[in-house]
Design a protein that fits this description.
The protein has 243 residues and is mostly helical. The chain has 2 domains: 6-78; 109-233, no CATH class. It contains 7 helices and 5 strands; from the N terminus they run E-H-E-E-H-H-H-E-E-H-H-H. The radius of gyration is 54 Å and the shape is rod-shaped. The N and C termini lie far apart (149 Å). Mean pLDDT is 74; it is low at 188-205.
């Protein structure tokens, strides 16, 4: 940039160049000795050159600073893998803990269900069947436990294995009224069996082992082999001794 010796205004000049001028007669005159104009202009040019150099240095510094920031950003982006790995590890551990907890809950629920069903099945079987072990299996198949509420609730299943509105009393009556179970029901509790072969009790009581017909004995042996053999071994099929 060439500096004019005289200018009407300092507008458009930077502060360094403005300082070279003095106001005179309403104008601005370059403040140099008349015999040293060349030196003054050279100094002004040197200052301009230095200013340009300084600007280039600042631009270089800014570029370096930007590269450094980009490097930091790249490094930070790369380090995100570590939190991601930690997150994955945490989620894996959480999943394992949830699976373990779920298994524990299932085990506890299974134990509660089995305990409730076994207890009630044994109770009813002892009341209804001559062989509680056999009757327990029949009754157990008709019971379930509902775990949805605050407390487990015993439910009666229908013959298709679906939850029904029947009560335990209804289930008990169903077994008593079913002729297929008559040979193995306790005589004093059985109803509707017909017991045609006994000729006793007005047809209301199931026959005692020694009163059973061949068909009834065969049905018992098929449905409850253990109970049948136990009765046979203790001589339950022999007629009672006459007194």
């Amino acid at each position: 940039m060439t500096l004019k010796r005289t200018v009407e205004t300092l507008d458009g000049l930077d502060d360094a160049h403005k300082a070279l001028y003095v106001e005179k007669d309403g104008k601005f005159v370059l403040d140099v000795e008349p015999d040293n104009d060349a030196d003054a202009l050279k100094r002004a040019k040197d200052r301009e050159t230095q200013a340009a150099k300084d600007l280039r240095v600042k631009l270089a510094e800014e570029a370096a600073r930007r590269e450094a920031l980009e490097a930091e950003l790249a490094e930070a982006t790369g380090q995100k893998k570590k939190p991601d790995e930690l997150q994955k590890a945490y989620e894996k551990k959480l999943g394992e803990n949830e699976a373990k907890w779920k298994l524990e809950v299932e085990k506890r629920e299974a134990f509660i269900k089995k305990s409730m069903i076994d207890a009630q099945a044994l109770k009813l079987a002892s009341e209804l069947f001559t062989s509680p072990a056999l009757g327990e299996r029949f009754i157990r198949d008709r019971l379930a436990v509902d775990m949805e509420g605050d407390e487990p609730v015993l439910r009666v299943l229908d013959s298709a294995g679906q939850v029904s509105a029947s009560s335990l009393a209804d289930l008990k009556k169903e077994f008593l009224d079913n002729k297929e179970y008559a040979p193995i029901l306790v005589g004093s509790k059985a109803t509707g069996s017909g017991a045609a072969g006994s000729g006793k009790g007005g047809g209301s009581a199931a026959p005692q082992p020694h009163e059973m017909s061949g068909a009834e004995r065969a049905a018992w042996a098929k449905s409850d082999p253990a109970g049948f053999m136990a009765a046979k071994q203790r001589g339950a099929f022999n007629p009672p001794a006459k007194t």
